[in-house]
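Incident log, structure service

09:12 report received: a user says their structure output differs between two submissions of the same chain.
09:20 pulled the input from the user's history:
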Amino acid sequence: MKETETGSSDLTPLLADADSLENQSPRGLASVSGAVFNICTTMVGAGIMSIPATVKVLGIIPGFAVMFMIAVLVDITVEFLLRYTQSGKSTTYAGLMAESFGSLGSLAVQICVMVTNLGCLIIYLIIIGDVLCGNESGGTLHLGVLQEWFGIQWWNSRAYVILFVVLFVMLPLVFLPHMNSLRHSSAISILLAVVFIAISSAMAIYAFWKGKTQNMRLLPDFANQVSIFDLFTTVPVLVTGFGFHVNIHPIRSELSRPSDMSYAVRISLAISMAIYFSIGFFGYMLFGESIMSDILVNFDQNSDSAIGQLVNNTVRLSYAMHLALVFPVINFSLRTNIDELLFAKKPVLAKDKSRFTILTCLLLALTYTIAIVIPNIWYLFQFLGSTTVVCLSFIFPGAIVLRDVHGISRRKDKVMAILVIIMAILTSMIAIATNLWTVG
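09:34 re-ran on a clean worker, output below:
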């Protein structure tokens, strides 16, 4: 683990422990509201785009029930991590696993964080590309906003547009060295998500008033479209939407009182649940069975007037900007984990400008390159949710409780940890097997 230089008062990522933060002046440290914004931003990223597609598969009642269950389990596992962080000496997720399982535990967390966060960043760029440059699925061409405005040109192709966004929107934000520095952009991103929900809901209500809404199923359609195994493929998508465990420690370390983290987590989960419930219900009402894995793509074919098209474009652009503002929050923990893995004995990353700059630019270049190659987000969501995200969100926290190196686990904690681990493993195995069978 990296440590501060003696007497240093600067807050840098992954360097100050909880005791030192408790004794510092609150000036310049993160507030609970700032932590809530950053946690919500971590959750309400690209995952919201696939929520209506999961509701289509599950049906409204099971869909909302599964969302609520996952939110409750996430709250439990976050509490596990916070309790062991308070009792131990580590201030990072990898360090927490190292206390319980040694260097292999730390390495497992770092690999999962890197795969998960890199996958999420790729997903964000794919969605932004879909919004601005369009997408083709099942033989149907969905035009992007720029193509609708200017026609199909060489300069509004996916490669050029995403490159422009990366250089002029994301690059300045990812160069900010502290998580708390992103609180304002995170607040704006949540506001944009709320705008997206409000407009989508208004469109669905208006369509309902005009009798143009789609048929909605309360339960899965086992008779025609859905098998029992298909239901399990939706769980990883929802798990990915609620996964924010990788940013627990960076956000907690910058709070003036780290003990407030539990409070911030519960507020964030409540806000995210409200957002997911809203977009799941109204998105399904608006598009029905025609919902694509990225609901933003559907908005290019849902208007028959200039005003309707303006509303559609506003929806798509607002959420594309939201994802651009979420990007640096996810990039933060990705960068720090890679640095912790590769340069454990080097000075703190925020104090080494050359290493910070090189690592940041390399990550952006890698993310951009892969986003240009991969066209579909649904399979990425399922892969991440079935593997690395489920490990970070459920399996690793449960394993820490069962290992109980600090002797603080109660019997009910261990029982819950066993149940969470078993459920996570079974669900992931069925989801992976179903996807492989479908692809095959």
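09:41 both user submissions now match this output. Likely a transient worker issue. Closing.
09:42 reviewer note: The radius of gyration is 21 Å. The longest helix spans residues 93-133.
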